[in-house]
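User: Sorry, folds how?
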Amino acid sequence: MDRGRRGGGMVGLLLLQALSEYGRLDRKPPVTAGLIAANTLIYLRPKFLDPILPTLNQVWFNPHLIVKNKDLKRFILSAFYHTGEPHLVYNMLSLLWKGIQLENAMGSFEFASMVAALLGMSQGITLLLAKSLVLFDYEKAYYNEYAVGFSGVLFAMKVVLYSQSDSYTYVHGLMVPARYAAWAELVLIQMLVPGVSFLGHLGGILAGISYLYLTGARSCANPFVKIMRGAARLLGWPLRYVNGMFRPSSGRVFGRGTLRGRETPGVWSCGACTYENSGLLNVCEMCGTERDGDADGFTPTAGGGAISVEELRQRRVERFGRW
């Protein structure tokens, strides 16, 4: 690989466009600016960075080499490398437009968290798709494919950006519903530029959908937080189950029975209205009848049977002084 590159006219155009957009903003999104700067510097390879930057051949995203050598360098860094100026400028202009909207809406910290999550998820899903296709004898087409670029993350960002939109947008001159723009672009790019990575773009779309599912569609929380919470709940289930077995029942009393249908010790049933009262009470809380006797001059009905609804109402009126 050449030691250092000189920025051509397209990189200069990218710089001018970025400066123009940022100049019009009251709040300049720093994470978006940092991502554009990082991708551009890696492509230009200035002399002071050349000794520490891997070459393009060392970071190609190749599923076979990543699995065989457990190569995390290819897994992560391949997203930040581009094969030429058109490739770089197209992706960075797309990142500029999407990043400004998402970062200003979410905040820089949450936006950075989302980009990190989408990067890992899009690369991981692409790797899983390529590995799965080996079962169908597609390994020559996909398992040994070489690809680089930020496109997978950009497709995922487009899914997130348009997830709640009911409007329409243009995709290469074709008007489509905004929430399906990523799918339309996947098909159109494959038709117009057959050499691009189909699995990489598809992995990005699926990563965006997964991110929305893990964050509840409207929340911007990092999905890894939900994963960890879910794992903690799953691991803590046996302890909660054992604890529940030895915890005494605290069923609440309701009329003729308890909440769980179990008999509760220390409860007595009123002979007049059949209401079940706490053992600490000597007078029925419902009708005022004394335990094993009468209260307020009232007597149970003949034979200790249940009183009528009207009589119960009259007793409550006289006991509590209200309707």
User: Anything to note?
Assistant: Strands lie at 168-171, 174-177, 253-254, 257-258, 267-269, 276-278. Residues 253-320 form one domain. The longest strand covers residues 168-171. The chain is about 55% helix and 5% strand.
